[in-house]
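Minutes, project check-in

Agenda point 3 was the complex the collaborators sent over. CS summarized: two entities, 756 residues total, and the question is how they sit relative to each other. Sequences were read into the notes so everyone works from the same version.
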Amino acid sequence: MTRLVAIFLCALAATVAPGQTEVTVGSKTFTESIVLGEVLAAVAENDTDANVSRKLNLGGTQLVYKALVAGEIDAYVEYTGTLLLDTFASDNLANETQLTERLSQDGLVMLAPLGFANNYGLAVRRNTANALSLRTIDDLRSHPDLVFSMNSEFLERGDGWLALREAYQLPPFDVLDATHEIAYRALAGGESDVMVVYTTDAKIGELDLVVLDDNRSHFPRYDAVIVHQQDLNQSAPGVVAAWQSLAGSIDEATMIELNRRVDGDGRDPGEVAAAFTSNLLGTDIIFVSESTAARVLRYTLEHLLLVVVPTAAALLIAIPVGVLAARRPSFAQPVLGFVGIVQTVPSLALLVLLVPILAWAKPVLALDAIGPAPAIITLTLYSLLPIVRNTHAGLSNIAPSTRESAEALGLSTRTRLTRIDLPLALPTIFAGIKTAAVINVGYATLGAFVGAGGYGTPILTWTRTDDPRLLLEGALPAMVMALCVQGLFEFVERAVTPRGLRAK
Amino acid sequence: MTTLGLAVTFENATVSFGDVTALDNISLEPKPGATTAIIGPSGCGKSTLLRLVIGLLTPTSGRVLIDGKDLASTDLTELRRRTGFVLQDGGLFPHLTAASNATLLPRRLGWPIERLKARLDELAELTRLPADALARYPAELSGGQRQRVAVIRALFLDPPLLLLDEPLGALDPLVRHGMQADLRSIFAELNKTVLLVTHDLAEAAYLAEDVVLMKDGDVVQHAPPSELVRKPANDFVRDFVTAQRSHMEAIT
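CS then shared the predicted structure for the full assembly.
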């Protein structure tokens, strides 16, 4: 995400000092959610004196909803269908009244719909629609040779492909399992004829597709709604009022156009949102975009934080633990086993798991559950294994006669450790630290999933937009950083290895 | 710098590793201020005996006394600083130069530079170590030079007790011969209690006043070398002496 440094020149707003109320807006990782997050932020900034911060591009529904409940963000835009059928699937909620009740149990409020729904739909090329006279989903039944494409989520969801076929009594069509972006290419290229779309996808207009009428009203409505913390009614009533006034102000065509400006024209979501908000409110919000160099520099600094802090923290923990493990064989097995098990926890799961844990522990730890903290903790845990293992191995591999003569010489335990054991084990320990640091450069890209920033941010955006420039901003510098870290460590390693050990 | 040798006493000392008895109820009192060689075939327990003296191993039963004081109630670090210890491969620290190896402990004890230098020069002369060897790392030294550095390190604080575990075992015969002569003059000059583990009777006879012949964790005979030859305690001693006879002839 590109952070928008949006300042507005509305004379009124400019005279008010920011900082009285803090409001944090979140979003999921796809274009529409990010644009809407920027709109929420821009409206709050324009209409109130609240100090607005953006934690956009956070993750999937699960994570963002958890972040909202935990108070890490104050609001984001969700879809009613998602809340009913995904978030609260097990509650079997019947209508929006029950949904409102369920949300209030989590301390949340849902505002009136923004004015568009982002539903599921079936789309075909215009020439196909004309040639086969397709207008409704019912019309598909008489053309069993059509090839469908859809993503695996829709294929597997209970309310997805199976339910649709049952509702419309559709014949067993050929189905291509493809990601959303690839399904569009397959449709445009003629490899498939019908695809499952989101009705606000900009591609529908771009490729001149026809969305077939859901004449049996099978698909639920995915009305876009602002969900915010109840507390906001007291802490920032002005912000809530400003957001309430957005109700009904974004229709489907507008949303499609906003998505198109980002995905089609490659413009910044913040810029697109600023233009939209200016128009809507009749003000003039100036969007100051970040230059590519400034953005990459910011990613670099964010990324370095995610590499340096965990590596340093792991070092402080792992070396003493490794020393202890080498001293006491009874301690070594459980410790090496534990750090080994930590390594087997899928990193993404650990990251996302830490969000509610950190939110719960916030009164004690005072760490933000969204942002660098969960990433730093995860990366620190992952760094333990190579450093603990190498410290243990380096110390255990010292020749018995060397250790015995150090003991026999009458050196104190501490001197033996600092003057003999650690210097001898240093090259091995150093190799462990190097491994941890290099691995961290790669793993740190996952930080983007919890709003920690870094090179993962453009990579995550790339998976959605397919814009190759984003790889140059994310993947390439991450590789360069990994090589630099490796080179730096090898240089230092040579410098710190005593000549007596190199001579061999 | 002369110090009286420490008195080492083993009282019914037994050392077992699980089912294996390395030392079986040993009572022994090497002469303080003299050199005693501990000799015997591989696995007889001679190295184990040496390690009991400074608590690198603890007796399973029985006691070790230093100047009449039970080792169990002795400050081991303090005792080790009054003991020089030389291993077969020198046991030098590979990451330190010869000089740093030799001076590590006195530097930790706060010796001033001038005193360190003077002592180092004195010991290099005593052990006939070439001056340029001091700046080298162990890997850059010859086997004989490494052992000389180990001896310098062991003697640095002028300890009243010297323990040597096959100090010349890894050296080629010519170097070994030279080092034997050097050690003999060092021992003669310094009047320390020296316990020297070796498997070579000729070396024992050449360097030590007394010989302790061991077999399977037991002391078989404790006597001057000449007595071992003339009045062997049993057949094992006679056979051991006979087997090493040719070496003996070289020096008697």
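Noted in discussion: The first helix of chain A runs from residue 11 to 15.
Follow-up: revisit at the next meeting once the mutant set is ready.
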